[in-house]
Specification:
Layout lengths: L2 E5 L23 H12 L4 E5 H7 L5 H6 L7 E5 L6 H14 L4 E5 L1 H13 L5 E3 L4 H13 L11 E3 L8 E2 L8 H6 L11 H7 L16 E4 L2 E2 L12 H8 L5 E2 L2 H13 L4 E4 L8 H13 L5 E6 L5 H10 L6 E7 L3 H6 L6 H14 L3 E5 L8 H17 L5 E4 L10 H4 L6 E3 L4 H10 L15 E3 L4 H17 L3 E2 L7
Parallel strand pairs: 1-2, 1-3, 3-4, 4-5, 8-11, 11-12, 12-13, 13-14, 14-15, 15-18
Antiparallel strand pairs: 5-6, 6-7, 9-10, 16-17
Helix pairs in contact: 1-6, 4-17, 10-11, 11-12, 12-14
Bound molecules: iron/sulfur cluster.
GO molecular function: 4 iron, 4 sulfur cluster binding; catalytic activity; cobalamin binding; metal ion binding
Keywords: Iron, Iron-sulfur, Metal-binding, Methyltransferase, S-adenosyl-L-methionine, Transferase
Pfam families: B12-binding, Radical_SAM
Length: about 500
């Protein structure tokens, strides 16, 4: 093999999920990885992929170190995603293991978290050779040519690459800049996964809905598919909003793939026996022309598959009609995040709709019997014991009106997302912020990989609302748990892990 891609767990590389009670291992691979891995393969490189948490869940004694040593041809280049901050410790643990086992191999990290903290990562973690800021396709194409030896790029000329110029000097980003446009996205293969070990188990993990998930001999398969990049919103708790994409990747709003290109990919998935496709962005917020063409072509081509879509705001009735006429509803689920029952708190956090509009929209979904997943968010700015009463009231109304077999509901705590508006301007939101550096996130992940005996919900989240100490969040969590337990639908208690 020339190149190895590894998706880290939140936990260390030797994590024993069979022995200890872990917090979520965060097994999802960022959607963009599929495109650049297939691009590198198309360039002629032998590329393999490992999803470490999936390997460890399948085989608890799996040893990355032994696996690396046992390879007949050792990779010259190892790519590790550090997109979500939850992998800050796990990604470094993988990088360290790779470097200790294969000292001559070049280790690269990339993703949104890397984009924000790239210089600090290179300054503090010797076992990472390069970091990529923003989009990775062109930087990786050139770096692979340089490292694997099939081209002649100079490392200094590679766009978006952060490197150490020399010993004692501060890491810095090369001058060249690249971001992927719509044509580039459409030219990439975001579907083929045959390079990934245990690809069917991973496809089973991606299925979202009421079906029973089995990793061995899975029957229900899904796939997260890139339908575009960026975002047009700036929800204050999110590090993947418009501003951060603009600053870290040079993107202004969405870069949309063509509906025809996405339909082609969905057709491939349906043909390969996938029951569901998870769309990487909310296509209901795309121009109506886009989703009308998308749904019409799926119907014309006779492609019927379940669709998982997360509504960033509220969809129009027209959109719901089109979705429900087209998708296989037995394998469809839509996620909606009203965040709070208090409209002011919701608006402040970036979701712009009233309870009345929200409940009316649920009536439309109910008419079609669409499975839904409702997300509140217990510890966001503005949510207090007073506003929380409105959240409970709204949750109760939903439970009383929506068919129970089609309803799931969760009210988790958020951790401070780097680059989120809340992280950048904490004073504007009445927040005290505790996580500001990569080391803060590394320590947070290292300390929260495994469930402690005593958990205070709201603790170790990197921020605290000035007038709402953590013990109040825990009190609200306990009230939610009592509410959740009394429901006949799948209403989950506030998670005790991070
Ligand atoms: S949470 Fe808000 S800002 Fe973040 S990706 Fe979703 S819609 Fe965009």
């Amino acid at each position: 093999m020339d190149i190895l891609y590894i998706h880290p767990a939140k936990q260390e590389v030797e994590a024993r999920y069979d022995k200890f009670r872990s917090c979520p291992p965060y097994p999802f691979i960022p959607v963009g990885v599929v495109g650049f891995v297939n691009m590198l393969r198309a360039e002629g490189y032998q590329v393999r992929g490992l999803n470490l948490p999936v390997e460890l869940l399948q085989r608890p004694t799996f040893s990355l170190r032994q696996w690396l040593k046992s390879q007949r041809i050792l990779p010259k280049l190892v790519l590790i995603d550090l997109h979500w901050y939850e992998h800050s410790f796990g990604a470094m643990s993988v990088a360290q293991t790779v470097k200790e086992t294969l000292p001559d191999t070049t280790v690269v990290v990339g993703g949104l978290t890397t984009s924000y903290f790239g210089e600090e990562i290179l300054a503090d973690f010797d076992y990472v050779d390069y970091a990529i800021r923003g989009d990775a396709e062109e930087p990786l194409r050139q770096l692979a040519a340089q490292v694997v030896g099939k081209g002649s790029s100079q490392v200094n000329d590679i766009p978006n690459l952060i490197q150490r110029p020399g010993s004692g000097q501060r890491p810095e980003q090369n001058l060249g800049f690249y971001f992927a446009d719509a044509a580039t996205l459409d030219s990439l293969d975001f579907v083929s996964m045959d390079w990934l070990s245990n690809q069917r188990a991973y496809a089973a993990l991606q299925y979202s809905g009421a079906g029973l998930m089995t990793l061995r001999k899975p029957k229900l398969l899904s796939h997260w598919l890139t339908v575009g990049r960026g975002c047009v919103f700036d929800c204050i708790y999110c590090g993947g909003g418009k501003e951060s994409h603009s600053e870290l990747a040079g993107r202004n709003g969405y870069v949309l793939r063509s509906p025809e290109g996405v339909v082609e990919d969905v057709a491939r998935l349906a043909k390969e026996g996938f029951q569901q496709v998870n769309l990487s962005l909310d296509i209901a917020t795309y121009p109506a022309k886009w989703w009308r063409a998308f749904f019409a072509q799926l119907r014309n081509d006779g492609i019927r598959i379940g669709i998982y879509n997360e509504f960033f705001q509220l969809p129009s009735n027209d959109f719901i009609d089109e979705l429900c006429k087209t998708a296989d509803l037995a394998h469809t689920e839509v996620a909606i995040s009203p965040l709070s029952g208090d409209e002011e708190v919701r608006r402040k956090n970036g979701k712009f709709y009233t309870n009345e509009r929200f409940l009316r929209m649920l009536e439309t979904l109910k008419k079609y019997e669409v499975p839904i997943f409702i997300y509140f968010s217990l510890n966001l700015p503005g949510e207090t014991p007073q506003t929380f009463k409105k959240t409970l009231y709204l949750a109760d109304q939903i439970g009383k009106t929506y068919p129970h077999h089609l309803l799931r509901m969760l009210n988790p705590c958020h951790t401070l997302d780097p680059m989120s508006p809340m992280s950048r301007q904490p004073d504007s939101f009445g927040m005290n912020v505790q996580f500001t550096t990569f080391r803060d996130y590394y320590d947070y992940c290292k300390g929260t990989g495994w469930e402690p005996r005593r958990v205070v919900r709201g603790q170790h989240r990197g921020f605290e609302m000035a007038s709402r100490p953590t013990r109040i969040v825990e009190q609200m969590a306990q009230i939610w748990d009592v509410f959740a337990q009394a429901q006949q639908f799948r209403c989950f208690p506030v998670p005790r892990g991070w």
